[in-house]
Design goal:
191 residues, Oxidized Rhodanese, domain 1, 4-stranded antiparallel beta sheet, 4 helices, globular
Length: 191
């Protein structure tokens, strides 16, 4: 869903809006026709981008777990792009959010989408992980596949399955697994 939105957004930014349907011809002045044919301005990439993280903002790393092995920003929330729509309650509405990815393209789309969802202070880090500042390699080897045992998760029985480590927290390893319908879900493997 989010990838389709970002693809359509990129199409509009680089190709332009779809052609307007033809209407019945009516008499207008040339000035009115020129104004009516002009498409609404799209936001420029620089409108949502910042060159360095905003002081006091939440750093949101939207890369995939396999990309975390190269390092993450100190204090960043690790939330892969596909999981952002499912975890909006984890994002603050009272302070700025600086979204970053590997190069800045995915983060620009997510920042734009977050603004449409009501997060007015969502910004994309234009340089990606290279502009974030000090990084650390997270523990728990993100991107590593592990076997998760069967058991109760949020009141529902889940079978044993293989999952990809997202990060290691005080509570245990946060992993992502695919459900039978193919959606990514998070599971916690307590330590």
């Amino acid at each position: 869903m989010l990838r389709r939105f970002l693809r359509n957004l990129a199409d509009r930014a680089f190709v332009g809006p779809p052609p307007a349907p033809r209407e019945a011809r009516r008499e207008e002045s040339s000035w009115t026709r020129a104004e009516a044919s002009r498409p609404a301005p799209e936001p420029e990439a620089t409108d949502l981008g910042v060159e360095s993280p905003i002081v006091g903002s939440l750093l949101l790393d939207i890369r995939e777990p396999g990309e975390f092995a190269s390092g993450v920003a100190v204090g960043a929330l690790l939330l892969p792009m596909d999981l952002v729509p499912h975890h909006l309650e984890r994002l603050p509405t009272d302070r700025a959010i600086t979204v970053y990815c590997a190069a800045g393209a995915r983060s620009w789309g997510v920042a734009h989408w977050l603004r449409e969802q009501g997060f007015a202070q969502a910004w994309s880090l234009s340089g990606g992980i290279g502009a974030v500042g000090p990084t650390r390699v997270p523990e728990g080897q993100p991107g590593r596949m592990i076997d998760l045992p069967a058991g109760q998760v949020d009141g529902a029985w889940v079978p044993a399955q293989r999952g990809e480590v997202i990060e290691q927290t005080e509570a245990g390893l946060r992993c992502r697994v695919r459900d039978p319908q193919g959606f990514w879900l998070e599971r916690l493997l307590p330590v």
